[in-house]
Each structure stands twice: as C-alpha cells, then as structure tokens.
Amino acid sequence: MPFDVKDILRQLDTGFAPDAGAPPWWQESWEDPEGFAAALVEAHAGKGVPPPKSRPGQQYDFFHDLVVRHVALERPAFRAYARVQGWQTVGYRALHDLAARRASEWAEQGVVPGAKVCLVHGVGQELLVSLLATLRLGGCFTLLPPLGPRAMATRLEALTPEFIAAEPHQLPLLRGHEKLLLKSRGGGAPGFTSHTYKPADVVGLLFSPLVDPPHTLVPLTAENAWKGALGDGMLTFGLAPGDMLAAPDFPVLQHQPALLFTTLLRGATYLHLELADLEHNPAPLLEHPLRALGVTPRLRDLLLRHRTGAMRNVLHWFRNPEEPYDAQAWRAWVKQCGLQAVPSSNVLIDAAAGGAVLVSSRGVNDPHADVHTDVFPVPGRRWTLKDPNVSGQGAPADVGVFTLLPDKGRPPGHVLLARIRSRYHYGGTMGFRHDGHAYPSKEVTSVLESGLPFLVGTSVVPVSTGGLASHSRFILLAFTGSEPAPPSSGQEIERRIEMMLGRDFLPDRIEFFPLFPHRKKGAVDDAWCATQFFTGALHRKATDPLFQALTALRGRLLERTGPSGEDGPPGTR
What we know:
This is Long-chain fatty acid--CoA ligase. By secondary structure, the chain is of the alpha/beta class.
C-alpha cells in the first residue's frame, strides 16, 4: 500500500478527532507493516547526513544509525542534570569516541557477537556508552539498574551473564559474579566496523516489569528494536534532529532502552533529570525547549506543590494510561502550567516489544478532553484482541486482551482494550497490577522470612481501588504470632525490603495481626490469608479475647515443639 509520510506527519501534528477512529493510513499500516516501515525509512533518511545502514527485514546496524551518522553535525546526544554538578552534556562525536574505545577494550576481553552483557548502570552517560559499545560488538545487552542485593542475585541467576559492566563501587551487588566484571580504562583504540544484526537476532534480554514475575527475561529482537525506535521517533513523539525528549520518573526497566534508541535514531537529544533533584528545584525542567515531555503523577504533583508557572518550553506532553486516572489533578496541573493549547497524548511503552504499543492522537481537539482514556494500537504493528478467558481465542465481544502479533514466544498480554464504535479505550489490566506492573509478592515475602524476629509469616493481598482503570493496591499482611507488633515494626519492614530489594518493592500498606497464619507444606497459605482478610475474619480474631487466648496458647506450644510446617484444613480453625 502507498503511504504519504509527509501527509501522515502533517495529520499527526494537527491532530485528529478520535470519534472517527484511526485515520485510513493508520488502519492500513496494521495490514501492511512492511510497506509502512519502508515508507518511514525513506522519509527518515533526510538530507545532509549519511543514510541509515539498516534495511527493514534484512539487516540492522544500530551503532551506525544511532551514533555514526550524526557525528558530523556536532549535536548533543545526551544531557543530564544533577544538583551538585549542574548540566552535563555529551555530543554525538564524543559518544562515538567513548563507545568505540570501550568496545575495543571489551573485544580484547572476549566480548563477541551474541555474548550476554549485563549493564548495571542507572540512566546516564555510563549506561549510554556501555550500551553502544555492546551494540558495536554485536552483543546481547541486559539493563539492570542497581537494586538491592537479593533482587540483584535473583536476576543475575536468571540471566547467567557472560560479562557485566558496572562501576567498582557496585561490586558488593555482584557477589558471586565479580569475575565477570569488564574493565574499562578509556584507552582502547577503535579500528573495526560495527556489527550488523539480522532481523530475528536477539539484541537484548530485558527484565520487563510488565511481565509476571518481573524477573522473567524477555527477548528483544533487532527488528522490533529498530522499527519501534523509528516509529516512535517520527510518529509517537514527532522528533526532528536537534529536538529534545525528557521523561523524568518513567520507570527504567519499562521504558529503556526504547526512549534512548528513539532519541538517538532521530539525531535528537535525550534529557535526563532525577525526580529527587526536581523536588529540590524544578527550574531545570524549564531551561530547555522540549519537543516531548513525559509526565508521571508524581512529577505532576511535584510541579503542583511548587506552583510551577507557564511551561512555555513544552511542545507536547504525554502520560502512561496505566497510571492512575485522576482527571481533576491532571486538569489542575494543565491549567496551572498553561498547557491547555499544548498537544497531549497517552503513550504506553513496552521496551521489550521495541517501544510504544498503544498511543493516542497528540493534537488538541477538545480543551475539556486533554486527559482521556483513548488509545490506538501503534501504527505499523499487527495485533488482535484475545478473549479475556485466556483460552487463546479471539475476543467475541468489544473488550479483549490487546495482543501483538505474532504472539508465539511472547509473554501473554495484560492490557484490556475496549472498542466503542470506532474508538478504543484503555480498560485496565488482566489481574491485579500496580500501574501496569506485576508486583513481585513472592520476592517481598521471601526477604521477610528471616531477619525480623517479630514476624511469624507474611502474605501480600492485592485490592482493587475501582475507578476507570481498576487500579490496585498491594497490602502486606504481617503476622506477629502471640505477641503484638513492636512500635517501630512498620519502619523495620520497609527498611528491610528497601535494603534487600529496592524502594520499588515496597507495598502500599502494611496490616499487622497478632495471629499465626495458616500454612501448607511449611509455606504461608496465601489463598487462606486473602479469604480471611477480605471476610474480616483476621480483624475479628485479632480483637476477640477468646481467640487471642488460644493464639497465646498456640505460641507456647510452638515454643516447646517447634512449628510443624503444616496446619489442618482452614475449616477446623
């Protein structure tokens, strides 16, 4: 099918009314993704820069297309702000030199095409240089920003990397894997061409928080990574060379390397700011013109608290539709920052799928609908709606599980998409999730099994808060046996979770019960805990004098005999 990319870009910049559904070209791109990608590549090539070496469906040279072709234009590739150092900038030329030298050093240490390289960096220059060095050598990267030691051990065990890139002070997090650490002294001399991946080659193995359990590895193919970056750069965000994109507070494991690839492929600049620095002073967010700004509820609330004025530097802002739909707070923020006439959109990104998978029009069609639930499957990808009964068949009604095709070998979809006439709406998730993320309940309860003597068992119970997108809260049930919880027990639990796993693993709430949980084969019976919690039985037992006396008696018996590891049927208790 012929695609007029100039007209498509004009439509996207103008915006279109979602009532009529996706424009004809958008719907045709679902049927002919190959032709659509070819049209985008031709328009992407541009003038004044070397053409991309990648050919959709044939070969992909990431290092050349992300860095080399932009070197001569002396543009900044990455800007980062830190409260002490201020702004730090690295250009495409410097990035090319740093990554090429690092690749030369790593090649001498044995990194070859297909080698699994784990990158233990947060978002910053070190991550970018190591990522590009891996791509130059044809390696298979995994992003693993520093977490607690228990979370790191679980993920490194699942990955079994061949090499690890990290900074020396992170060695305590790599216990048992220290010999895999790559050495980077900055003295390598680049002298070889970059690697070319085949379409089906796995360029990355990603720990996606959208997959249950979240320490599951998801392969990212070269084709999905490159095409996703191209489509997002041109269509989702409308980036041109020299533009800037920022997404403060967007979870790294869900959104990277997709946002970095998108920015670099278009010759644009990725702007990185930490939420903690913006909490101290949000002014740096206003210092550069932003072609696209990603806004989370936490960033929105921060700017509302600081009474940030007009954000004249923002040309388009976007939010993740899986985050809480608080229309009143969003509209208060839009009004305060003077963004009523600025295009906004919903963008759901899955880096393991190559980038955005659900997007909405980014035009300004209705000032009263600047925050909405409209989404469309991203242009240029085949997809379907599956039956929510998990049978694998197509959805018989107008609500189904959004599934990218081909789905063989891909984790099952989790997003419920509702079709109303020609419009599509984000309708929540299959099962309980935290802003779309699978909550690692087993990891959390595992780190609490030992180390806190006042606990005799824990279980995590998800609770739906209702609302348009069926958001969930995860409540940790903490059982303290025959003794009441100490005054500081809540802080001690949070401290242990944060120390061993990381802050993102904290539950939304902790409920204490001076009871013993039911067990099966030595493990806490989560189903029993959930039933007892939702029926109010735990609360009644915790406040009933007779049951508390029986609990105290049981505690004395367990002190003498030790736990048996298994209780009788729930009906007998």
